Amino acid sequence: MVKQLSVFVENKPGRLMEILRALADNMIDIKALSLADTTEFGIIRMIVSDADKAKKVLNNDGVVVRICNVLAVAVNDEPGALMNTFEILSENKISVEYMYAFGEKLGNSSVIAIRTDDMDLAAERLTDGGVTVLEGDDISEM
Amino acid sequence: MSYFQKEFECMPREKIRELQSERLVWQVKRMYERVELFRHRMDELGLTPDDIKGVDDLPRLPFSYKQDLRDYYPYGLFAEPLKNIVRTHASSGTTGKQIVVGYTKNDLDMWADCMARQIYAAGGDENDIVQVSYGYGLFTGGLGAHGGAEKIGATVIPMSSGNTQRQINTMVDFGSTILCCTPSYAMYLGEAVNEAGLRDKIKLKAGIFGAEPWTEDMRRAIEDSLGLKAYDVYGLSEIMGPGVSYECQCQNGMHVNEDMFIAEIIDPDTGEVLPEGEQGELVFTTITKEGFPVIRYRTRDICSLNYEQCECGRTFVRMNKPSGRTDDMLIIRGVNVFPSQIEEVLLKIGEGITPNYQIIIDRENNTDTLDVNVEMTESLFADDVKSIERIENRITSDLRSILGLGAKVHLVNPKTIARSEGKAKRVIDNRNLHD
Ligand SMILES: [Zn+2]
Predict the structure, then answer these.
(1) Residues measured by CB to lie within 5 Å of ligand 1, the ion
(2) How many Å apart are CA B39 and CA B31, to the nearest integer?
(3) How far apart are CA B288 and CA B295, in angstroms?
(4) CA distance B409 to B119
(5) Is the Cβ pair B412, A6 closer than 8 Å?
């Protein structure tokens, strides 16, 4: 599993930019990013090269940040590969809360971040099912 | 059940009203003759003392204000020559210049009655040992409680405030049974007594606490830590001092000494008297006071009056603990709102930590709008949109049930609410109501 940064942002112009700038200024690489929003506020979810350092940097700027675990799954670039992953989860009655893709590929595979209601069970069953579940080290080398 | 002066404390309501009317007529007449400012204000309204025939005419009389005491400092509002004034008390407001009040011998006697009634209502009598840990001096607390305790023939320990170690030693050695002090000092003494392991060595059965706002939670904490029953006493030096109203064993509102003071609740904006039971500004008229009497004095405390008969048998009206000051009150769509109410809601949701917040009031199409911005905190933040929306909704519905008013709640980025000198500006009123 890998550490994900969740950041609260009010829906105001420029907020996202400020956060990205703070990370860039501190040489923190963003591997994957997604934004969930309503008209009022949003949650930015990110996987970065150093989650703990990123949290410190953002906290110093007065940004509210939480760190939680997500699954980073390598999916082969072939038809039906992603479906296989979801079939395993669904067969085990594990529901997916959200998912998003990494910007870069790992070899021939796309990398997908997935958050489920039972993370440990999901990791176990996916591994058993032959799906490559990546760890923090794999990600920082990307 | 024991009363200090049953003939007054349990007087039938219609008799109280008769007595008040008689005393009001007397007071208006003598103040008109003796207090220039009052005469001037009556003249401006085209009123003479003959127009005032009883309590029904009270709403026609002019208000008086704390500012009057500053304008006529030091003796300009006294209704007796100084030779008849036997004591003064003074308080320094937050705005600088102190205010002075004066008492005749008779005034001190009646004040002692007020506090004596309180001590009796708290179950005290001549067998008690009363430790007075209010400050003695220009402040009315110490000497006020002292006078009442002496009047009932109790044994008084005039401790004054401070020197906690000595307070506790005295409490143990002298066997104090009643403690009079501010509620915050009572909290402090409670902690100190328990830390010293002396909880079993003290004999306190009642505490009479006032002179500052306190909560029911504080009451329970004090009662637990000192093993006593805690009573709330209300007063202000412009009216008398502690004992203007006092709590009985029902602990459900403070009985106003209505043979001496007439209480009214008014709309602080219009000055209109509000219907019975409604919340508004508390106004007092002193109908027996000689040295420094006031007519319709605006206390700026917000509370309501309860005219239902109390289980204790006293017929005096009860005032609820003031919920705020008119200085902080906002009127939004005709509803009185205090920032402290909003703070209460947020405190609960923040699990003990009040998030930073700001109240913004505006007016759109002649309707007031209320927006509450709340800074996001780590404890409120969750990784999904739904939980955050749930928090917003909970704040909105809690505010609605406490204020009786719909508010738009926005969770905002931390540290985005403007602060001046480290303190956040809590209220922004964009309505320009005073132009
Ligand atoms: Zn009562």
Answers:
(1) B 248, 250, 310, 312, 314
(2) 7
(3) 11
(4) 47
(5) no
Joined together, the tokens standing for residue B257 give 């000494």
Looking at A23-37, B120-134, B289-303, B330-344, which range is the least confident one? B330-344
**Pick from B223, B216, B236: nearest CA to B193:** B223
Q: Is the Cβ–Cβ distance between B223 and B230 less than 8 Å?
A: yes
pLDDT tens-digit readout, B59-88: 999 999 998 998 999 999 999 999 999 999
Q: Hey, what domains does chain B have and what are their CATH numbers? A: 1-323 (3.40.50.12780), 330-434 (3.30.300.30)
Write the DSSP assignment of A12-76 as a string of letters. Answer: -TTHHHHHHHHHHHTTPPEEEEEEEE-SSEEEEEEEES-HHHHHHHHHHTT--EEEEEEEEEEEE
**Domain contains A142:** no
Give the number of A-B residue pairs with CB atoms closer than 8 Å: 50
Q: Which of A12, A42, A68 is the last residue of a domain?
A: A68
User: What is the complex's ipTM, to 2 decimals?
Assistant: 0.80
In a domain, residue A60? The reply is yes
Closest CA to B260 of B112, B101, B141: B112
Put simply, whether B383 touches A (Cβ < 8 Å) is yes
Using the beta-carbon criterion (under 8 Å), do B413 and A68 form an inter-chain contact?
no
Reading the block at residue B94, the tokens are 């937050």
Reduce the DSSP state of residue B315 to 3 states and report it: coil
Total domains, chain A: 2
Other beta carbons within 10 angstroms of residue B423's beta carbon come to 7
Is residue A35 located within the same domain as residue A86? Answer: no
Kindly report the number of other CB atoms within 10 A of residue B294's CB atom.
Answer: 26
pLDDT of residue A78: 81
CA angle B232, B233, B236 (to 5 degrees): 140
A64: containing domain: 2-68
For B223-273, the pLDDT digits (tens) are 999 999 999 999 999 999 999 999 999 999 999 999 999 999 999 989 999
pLDDT tens digits, A67-105 = 999 999 998 888 788 888 999 999 999 999 999 999 888
The token duo for A3 is 């550490």
- B217 is written with which tokens? 């939670």
Q: Say whether B195 sits in a helix, a strand or coil.
A: helix
Average pLDDT over residues B5-18: 97
